[in-house]
Amino acid sequence: MEDKTVDEDDKFFASFGKAPEFFEKLDYLLKLGVDVEPSPQENEKEESLLWALSLIVGQMKPADTKNNLLLPPQLMEYREQSYLLDPFLERIVVPTVEVFRNHVMNFVTQQSSGSKPSYSLPAPLNPTDVVKSVNFFPHQVADISIALDYLESPDSPALHSAHWKMRYIVLLWLSLVCMIPFDLVKFDVDKKPHAATSLTTAKRLEALALKYLPNAGIEREAAATLLSKLFMRSDTSDLLSDFFHQIPSWLTQNPDHFKGIGLLHVFCEITKSGIPSSISPYLSDIHEVLSRISSDETLLINTVVRKYHIKLAGRLSLGVLPSRARKMAKGRKLLGASTPLEISDDIPDDLNIPEEVESTVSILLENLQDKTTSVRYTASKYLARLAERLPTSLSQQLLDSVLELFAIYPSNDNLDDLPAIAEPTWHGACLACAEIARRGLVEGDRVRDLVGWLKKALLFDIRKGAHSVGSSVRDSAAYVVWALARSQSQESLKPYALSLAQQLVCVSLYDREVHVRRAASAAFQENVGRLSLFPHGIDIILKADFFAVGSRRNSCLVVAPQIAVHVEYRVALLEHLTAITLVHWDPAMRQLGAQSLRVVCEKDMGALAPLAKERLLRLLGSIDTNRIHGALFGLSELAAAYKARGDQNEMLNIFHYLDKIPLELLQKQHNGHLIEASCFFLSNTLTNQSLVSRDGTPRWKRIIDLGLRHRLSEVQEAAASALKTVSSLIDVSDDIKRYVPIILKHEGSSYSFSPTYIKEFYHGTPQFQQSIGYALGEISYNTYNNAVFSSMNCLLDTVDSSSTSYSTNVETRRNCYTSVPKVLQILNEKIPEVFEPQILGRITTLYLKGLEDYSVDERGDVGSWIRIACIRAISQTIKIVFRICPVLEKRGPPDLWLPRNTYQQLIGGILRQGVERLDNVRREAGESFMRMLGFPQLSDNGLWALDGFDLFKDLFVTSESSDWSNAQDHFPKAVQILQIPTYHTPVLYGTILSIGSKTDGTQRPMATCLTNFASSLPVSAKKGLTLIGLTTNILDVAQSHLSANQIVIPVLQTLCVLLENGVLARLGEDEAGLTIVNWLLTIPTIFLQTIELLPQFLLHPFPKVRTDTAEHLYMVLQANDFDLDTDEIEEIILETDWLTDVQELKSKADTLITVFKTNYTSK
Predict the structure, then answer these.
(1) CA dist., res. 738 & res. 761, Å (int)
(2) What is the pLDDT of residues 820-849, one digit of tens each?
(3) With helix as H, strand as E and coil as C, how does 1116-1132 read?
(4) Nearest 10 degrees: CA dihedral of 598, 602, 608, 609?
(5) Which residues contact 467 (CB under 8 A, 6 or more apart)?
(6) Of 405, 404, 387, whose CA–CA distance to 396 is shortest?
(7) Where in the numbering of this chain does the Tubulin-folding cofactor D ARM repeats domain appear (predicted)?
(8) Would you give the DSSP letter of residue 54?
(9) Residue 138: exposed, middle, or buried by beta-carbon count in 10 A (0-12, 13-18, 19+)?
(10) Are 143 and 186 in contact (CB under 8 A)?
């Protein structure tokens, strides 16, 4: 899959630009009452504010948001750059914490449960930011009692199951305040007589922490932090002793993962900065805990248990070893500094290493091969830290043990035969080497050994099923190179500088994964900045920086040729492409690698192209189809380079390479990718000489025929490309006529066609017809005739529903519609010489029919594919006609080729699609129409002037946004087109269909926009669109499609929308509206709503309106069967004198409406 070139996640910012907006909403949120039960509306407002704040700083993803958010999902820019918030943390956290602290104090002092706070403490922050935020928590002496009482109270809001964030924050708060430099006993002395518990403060803290220690949630982490801070106090030694006495029973009685994780987390926090003196007496107990956990297979299944297990073992071992000082040499950070990282060797070689250290080293080496990345990374860090504290000889032995991990699974130089299970081992070994190298512990010959393994690790990519594994290995290998640059001298790395530079450049350009490319680029940059050993280093890091290698296509096709200008890297790039990229498991990588091979070789075709051909020729002889596929694409691109230089001899030489591939291999069922590559190969290598054949059917023709008959569209397109090349060299009329015999029958041709193709055309597969439909649009008709008339008629008959050759296959019709403007484009000024004006008339007629295609199958609205193809075809055809207008005038008036009426219908068809329900159809209609607005013929007063051009320009050209796929933005503008009489009907059709759609994102915006537009119209006027005219036109749509439910039902839904919003109630303002209201009675779905409008006409101030309404209503009742008793209604109408005073008529009108409703509801 191709990398995204532009993406929201790829944005990088220099500052927190949304700070004013964020703090405005935060201040508003903090002013809301916390201790008062909010109403449902206030609660929804608070939640929306909190969600909005979280979106700004990126705590939540757009997929998690609600419809009523105050901010759009675009405010997610800072999710990956939370460090930009660090300067604002104090301003964010302090007022928030103060409000929360006031809530806690009010609750504790008044014992009023109040409502839940509508936010957690630093709720708008990522979990990783909470640790930074703790520094801004209140830490007054009185806070410890307040926080304890709050969390212990049975009515505390924090005890609600949904408020886990609140519990987490309070526990962290307690872990901070329990570090106060006062004896905790003082709080027991000052305890109030009415206190709810008799436990000491220390016991209460311990009990609270132990309560949440076995939890599965994030409270466990805060509880472990609280316990560690509590146990490290000098006045809690008795608690520590009791704690260790309880541990054996915990591990024996029903041990579970979460309790084990919490226990290990406590010990890890305690030993984080060394082994405190208060813990020393209990070291044997801690080792016993480690031993029990390591022997319990059920606990070790959990990843977090294994991680904390090795972390604790490593910290305990570090605590019994002496530290070794490291000194960074002065000037080390300068470019080209040659002084390595200095490490004081003050640890004697005869240092007595405790036995537990040796045991820990074995555990860490074993966990370097763990299946989980976090465990391997933890093991690598502590292995390097232990190596740093060991004597030099032992640290080198430890490095040797790590290097031996690479050789556990023997393989060849290309790593082809490595098993997939080797990935975690190689990854762990690379991580350990990086951590060891970062500390300057790689010396002497081990640098050579390490670099040798790194060259292999940078290419570690093992196929596993439908994908591959190894990206983590390549990423960590780049990390090792980065670490070596920070710790080694120029002299130690100089022998390997060129090979490392070439390897890193190749990986940064051609690796499939973006994070690996960026890691290799960073390693290259670090080496250039610190050692200055890499050739042309500064120039290369300017070209292949973090952003340049972010896009796979950009790195392969733009950056690679820029680097290939340096001779030192050309051969390395070529070797990597032919040995790695062109044999990659991903076909997209092979194709991209072939394109990159061309642009690299073009830097020196004389030297590089022969070398590339030699290597690719060897790949053609492989039994691996992936290698053959890559070789074919590579040779195809080389031939394209020679073709651009006009070197037909080299093209002919490459063409003969295709003979090395057996035709039987291409005919196998699952080798479509080989046929595709072979067809592209032919499209770039065919010459007049290569087309000559003395042995019956040429091989190239059989390959193209295989491609045209293949079921995959990409193979068909490749075959069409090859056929295009052939048609530019020779006349392929006979081959085309062979595929379209029916057209010849229509022409009365005496051509003797094969019965096989006649049968195949009548009864062939839809895929074959689809292929021919596409291929006919690719043939070069401007060089030779190539049966252009037959081709065009075949395309038109295939999409003409009245033709016997009409295809029911959607893909075939789509391809034919796509090919028609291509044929016209290829012919260009030759159109009048080949076609008569009637052909262009038939083409435009079929375009209009295609816009009416709403075919549906199990895949959905597949007719949209045809509508999109027709929209593109219309804009392209109109552009062609405008361009060759001077040539057309020589054969007759332009109106003969494209009548104005037809032209207006084509424009109206595009505008109609621009207001329908599918976003992609509207987008295509918008793009096509916007391109057409740029045609000068639309703005002048000539034959093809666009009606309402100024309005279109104001709506879509001068406005800020013209995204037609955005319903909210586009529909308010689109309904304005209804004012243009020429396009009123097609746009009204599209509007009605959108309102009748089931797509909520389309139906609601369009209904709202039409309601607002109709409300702005006058009821009646001498000029322009009126409400009566709009409503009449809507009814006309239904009247003209009474048998089509797909039209009538949307019309009824449109009328219901206008009725429900009171728009049609305004019809009573004009007597012309009475006819519409009476006829609306004939529509059952809106019968009751329409009845409510009758009194506005029956009680109208003008007697003529009242009498006309009664008369027309009587005629409607007589002419239509309402399936209800209308005798009493007709009697009221006939016996009432509608010329009398309105006040006297009110009772009659009310009675009439009541009878109407009663009879309707009782039927």
Answers:
(1) 10
(2) 999 999 998 888 888 888 899 999 999 999
(3) HHHHCCCCCCCHHHHHH
(4) 60
(5) 585
(6) 387
(7) 341-538
(8) H
(9) middle
(10) no
* CA atoms of 869 and 726, how far apart (whole Å): 26
Q: What residue has token string 């006819």?
A: 1075
Class of residue 562 by CB neighbours under 10 A (exposed 0-12, middle 13-18, buried 19+) = middle
Contacts with 1134 (C-beta within 8 Å, 6 or more apart), sequence order: 1114
| DSSP codes joined into one string, 205-237 | HHHHHHHHTT-SSTHHHHHHHHHHHHHTSTT-H
What is the C-alpha separation between 525 and 532, in angstroms, rounded? 10
Does position 1114 have pLDDT exceeding 90, yes or no?
no
> Parallel, antiparallel, or unpaired for β 467-469 and 462-464?
antiparallel
Average pLDDT in the chain: 82
Token output for 161: 């199951």
For residue 474, the Cα-to-chain-centroid distance in whole angstroms is: 25
Torsion of the alpha carbons at 467, 473, 476 and 482, rounded to the nearest 10: -100
Length of the chain: 1163
H-helix or E-strand containing 162? none
Query: Which ranges constitute the DSSP H helices of 855-975?
Result: 863-883, 885-889, 894-897, 900-913, 919-933, 949-952, 967-974
Structure tokens at 680: 């592209």
Q: Which helix (H) or strand (E) holds 828?
A: none
How many helices (H) and strands (E) are present in the chain, helices listed first?
60, 4
CA–CA dist 157, 159 (Å, integer): 5
Residues 6+ apart with CB under 8 A from 1055: 1031, 1034, 1064, 1080, 1083, 1086
DSSP collapsed to 3 states, 191-204: CCCCCCCCCCHHHH
Residue 274 has which token pair?
């060394």
CB 480 within 8 A of CB 454: yes
Assign residue 397 a region (left: φ > 0; alpha: ψ between -120 and 50; beta: otherwise): alpha
Contact predicate 966/1006, CB 8 Å? no
Whether 425 contacts 368, CB under 8 Å: yes
Convert the pLDDT of each residue in 927-986 to its tens digit. 999 999 888 888 777 788 898 888 988 888 876 667 898 888 899 999 999 999 999 999
pLDDT tens-digit readout, 144-167: 888 888 888 888 888 888 788 888
Task: Note the helical H segments in 58-183.
Answer: 89-110, 127-133, 143-152, 164-177
Question: pLDDT at residue 231 above 60?
Answer: yes
Of all helices (H) and strands (E), which one includes residue 111? none
| pLDDT band for position 749 (cuts 50, 70, 90) | very low
The pLDDT of residue 76 = 52
Give the max Cα distance, the chain: 125
* pLDDT higher than 90, residue 769: no
Residues with Cβ within 8 Å of 1060's Cβ and at least 6 positions away in sequence, in order, are 1089
* SS3 readout for 665-702: HHCCCCCHHHHHHHHHHHHHHCCCCCCCCCCCCCHHHH
Label residue 286 exposed, middle or buried (CB < 10 Å: 0-12, 13-18, 19+).
buried
Mind listing the pLDDT tens digit for each residue in 699-712? 898 999 899 889 99
pLDDT at 777 over 70: yes
pLDDT over 90 at 1082, yes or no: no
Residue of 217 and 334 predicted with greater confidence: 217
Q: DSSP string of 795-817?
A: HHHHH-TTSTT----HHHHHHHH
Alpha-carbon distance 612 to 608, whole Å?
6
- Which amino acid is it at 803? S
How much is the pLDDT for 1069?
57
DSSP tag of 462: E
- Choose the weakest-confidence range: 598-612, 882-896, 1039-1053: 1039-1053
The dihedral region occupied by 144, where left means phi > 0, alpha psi between -120 and 50, and beta the remainder, is: alpha
* Average pLDDT of span 790-816: 89
Closest CA to 428 of 393, 387, 479, 468: 479
